[in-house]
Amino acid sequence: MNASSTRFVLAARVLHWLMAAMILSMLFIGVGMVASVSERHEWLIGIHKPLGIAILVLAVVRLIVRLRNPPPPLPVDLPPVQKLAALASHWLLYALMLVIPLVGWAMLSAGGYPVMLSSSLRLPPIFPVSPVAFAVLRHAHAWLAMLLFLTFLAHLGAALYHGLIRRDGVLPSMVGGRSK
Ligand code: HEM
After folding, report:
1. Ligand 1 within 6 A of 105 CB?
2. Which coarse location class describes where this protein primarily resides (predicted)?
3. How far apart are CA 26 and CA 44, in angstroms?
4. What are the residue ranges spanned by the domains of the chain?
5. What residues form DSSP beta bridges with 91?
6. What is the pLDDT of residues 166-177, one digit of tens each?
C-alpha cells in the first residue's frame, strides 16, 4: 500500500470480514457448548476446535498482512485520545485472536485430551498434563473470550460512530473505498 491509499488492501479486507464472522460464531458456539449437556455438546466441540485452530492460522496470516501493509491514516482531526483508543483496541484484538486459540489448545493439552482436527488429524500437545494448569487455563479461556466479546462491542460502536456520526471515511476504508 502506498502512503496515499484510503482503504485497506484487499487481503486485509477479506480477512477482516471472514474472521469477524468466524470469531462471532466461535463466541456463540463456545457459550452454547458449555451450556449444553446433550449430544449437541460433542457436536459443537467438534466444530469449536478446528474452527479455533483455523482462526489461529488466519490470525498469523493477518498479522503478516498488517505488518507488510500499513493501514490508511486515521482522519487528521480525530482527537488524540480516540486515535490512541483505536490503536490500543486494534492491537488488543490481534493479541486475543492469537492468545485465545493457543490457551484453548494448551488447556486441552494440560487436561490430557487429544486435540483432534478431524477423525484422523491430531495436533501435538503444547502443555504438560497438569490438572491445576487445566483449571487455570479453562478459566483464562472463558475470561479472555469475554474480553474479546467486550472489545468487539467497543470496536463495533466505534465503527458505527465513524460511519454514522463523524462520516469521516474510516468505515468505507474497510468496506470498499473512502469517500473523502
Ligand atoms: C478465537 C478462538 C476461540 C474463541 C473465541 C473461543 C471461545 C470459547 C468460549 C466463549 C467458550 C465458553 C467459555 C465458558 O463460558 O466457559 C469456550 C470453551 C472452550 N473452548 Fe474455545 N474458543 C476459541 C478457540 C479454541 C480452541 C483453538 C480450542 C481447542 C483447540 C478451544 C477449546 C475449548 C474448550 C475445550 C472449551 C470448553 C468446553 C467445555 O467445557 O465443555 N477453543 N471457547
Report:
1. yes
2. membrane
3. 10
4. 10-175
5. none
6. 999 899 999 975
